[in-house]
Amino acid sequence: MKKAIITGITGQDGSYLAEFLLDKGYEVHGIIRRSSSQNTQRIDHLSTGKFAEEEKFVLHFGDLSDSNNLNKLIYHIEPDEIYNLGAQSHVKISFDVPEFTSDVNAIGTLRLLESIKEVNPNIRFYQASSSELFGKVKETPQSENTPFNPRSPYAVAKLYAYWITVNYRDAYELFATNGILFNHESPRRGKTFVTRKITTGISNIIKGRQDKIILGNIDAKRDWGFAGDYVEAMWLMLQQDSPDDYVVATGETHTVREFCELAFEHVGIDLVWDGEGENEKGFDSATGKELISISSQFFRPTEVDLLLGDATKTQQKLNWKPKVSFKELIHMMVDSDLNNYNNLYRKEY
């Protein structure tokens, strides 16, 4: 039985990856931060289910800012694989807490790599990299060979993590790989992220709990996929004969505006727009009710306008491609927020 450690196991990707590995027969160990109120909703079904009873799913207190603790955990657990998904993951918030973001996202990765080097260099390591590395893009679409041009403290920290992973791979012959994942969403996405903000907003509007949704740059273009598809690519990277870096993406780009239109369309509302810039608003074409407004508080200090991934290498070498389409993803998220308001983390999602 293989053993895996997942940092960031309480997050969207961590919960899907834990389920995926458990289904593969792994013993999964998750690292969670100690706090007075634990954010474990996404993995509670694993913590109280058969996998916990069989001791195949175990949680440990730890933190990417504590190298001594990481050393002890890796030494005692003796994992075959480590998936570093832990991060301060909100790009806009990284402008408010740049030092914390850098310590966790950048130096946290270094701490893990140092632990692997010292405890057991045979451990296979996955680093959750990000399409935000490309920032103000140098070319479209973006592949593994596209120059990086980060535009946020989050992206700069992830850039350090990317290169320190490559450096430790080259310097110490570690099996260390970067997954450069483009945007991936699900019903488990945090409510502060724009996609989930839209789908929860629609649910609240339908149920009379909210009047409208306030957004930022609705013309930003992103390559959106389903998180449940992307964790398979993470696992496949660590099953190869040699380590490498891979872009994971759908190869399609859509605007936030399109996401809004399809999400409202799914609940029978035809969204129409009026105005320009910060004065633009979205209305229900049938009733004239204002449903979307724009606020400058949700714009980033430096914006990333377009991200579009070229996952040719991943498709060819890993035999991976996304299964859930853009429209299916939106429908899944809207349906979840409408039908499972108090039960958002069922395994089928």
Automatic annotation (TrEMBL):
One GO BP: 'de novo' GDP-L-fucose biosynthetic process
Cofactor(s) listed in the protein's UniProt record: NADP(+)
An example molecular function term from Gene Ontology annotations: GDP-mannose 4,6-dehydratase activity
Residues passing through the membrane, by range: none
Superkingdom of origin organism: Bacteria
Keyword hit for Transcription regulation: no
Domain annotation NAD(P)-binding: ranges: 5-333
CDD domains assigned: GDP_MD_SDR_e (cd05260)
Catalytic activity: GDP-alpha-D-mannose = GDP-4-dehydro-alpha-D-rhamnose + H2O
InterPro entries noted in UniProt: GDP_Man_deHydtase, NAD(P)-bd_dom, NAD(P)-bd_dom_sf
Broad enzyme group: lyase
Family listed: Belongs to the NAD(P)-dependent epimerase/dehydratase family. GDP-mannose 4,6-dehydratase subfamily.
NCBIfam families referenced in this protein's UniProt entry, alphabetically: gmd
PANTHER family per the UniProt record, alphabetical: GDP-MANNOSE 4,6 DEHYDRATASE, GDP-MANNOSE 4,6-DEHYDRATASE
Designated name of the protein: GDP-mannose 4,6-dehydratase
Organism: Candidatus Galacturonatibacter soehngenii
